[in-house]
Amino acid sequence: MHRDNDWTKRVVTLGLPQRAGALPSLPPAGDATDATLIGESLTDPDRFAGLFDRHADEIHRYVARRLDDVTTADDVTAETFLVAFRKRARYDLGRADARPWLYGIASNLISGHRRSETRRLKALARQAPERADGFEDRSAERVTADRLRPALAAALARLGAAERDLLLLVAWADLSYEEAAQALGIPIGTVRSRLSRTRTKIRRSLESHR
Questions:
Q1: 103, 126, 130, 178 from 196: Cα distances, Å
Q2: CA distance 4 to 125
Q3: Side-chain half-sphere of 179: how many Cα atoms within 13 Å?
Q4: What is the pLDDT of residues 172-206, one digit of tens each?
Q5: Number of Cβ within a 10 Å radius of residue 18
Q6: Could you tell me the sign of the dihedral formed by the alpha carbons of 99, 101, 107, 109, in that order?
Q7: Which of 28, 46, 48, 143 is the most exposed place for a label (fewest CB within 10 A)?
Q8: Alpha-carbon torsion, ordered 199, 193, 162, 159, to 10 deg
């Protein structure tokens, strides 16, 4: 328990988005899978630092895109790995890639900032309107955070929390349907049907802005 507390304090004091690998006291992850690092961390907590080093930057970029606030993204990213560290004994070691698990934790923490995210999207939606281009079913899965169009921002703001989380995990985190299902703890069939409904909503919203 003492070594667990030492590692937790170390993560809390890290200055994100600085990479954990820059700290000489952290052991290298090498070619070990995420599952291997998590399993080894059960007896050697410092091994979990390799997971942080490997994925913290990616999680931070995703959170920052969602919330448009680097300071908040720092906090949410650090908390994501603290929660993961504390729950690591429950991780399914049969899953070599821990990214879906980490994104799921991050999504839960982002939910605490849902109002801020929605306010940001609504503010973008109030910018000068522009013509919406043609929209195809899979266009919703190629949404980019950069130069987010007012019409698209308005469409995202109208989505429910579960719809937005799923869409952006696929679009911005580049998770597969299977990985998104793991991240959110829902069946793959739900992922497919929910994305289909979401694409329809976005298409109709964009068409109304033409």
A1: 21, 27, 25, 15
A2: 45
A3: 17
A4: 899 999 999 999 999 999 999 999 999 898 888 77
A5: 12
A6: negative
A7: 28
A8: 30
Contacts of 1 (CB under 8 A, 6+ apart): none
Is the confidence at residue 78, as pLDDT, over 90?
Answer: yes
Q: Is 160 helix (H, G, I), strand (E, B) or coil?
A: coil
Q: What is the 3-state secondary structure (H, E, C) of 110-153?
A: HHHHHHHHHHHHHHHHCCCCCCCCCCCHHHHHHCCCCCCCHHHH
pLDDT one-digit tens code per residue, 29-69: 568 999 999 999 999 999 999 999 999 999 999 999 888 88
How far is Cα 19 from Cα 66, in angstroms, rounded to an integer?
21
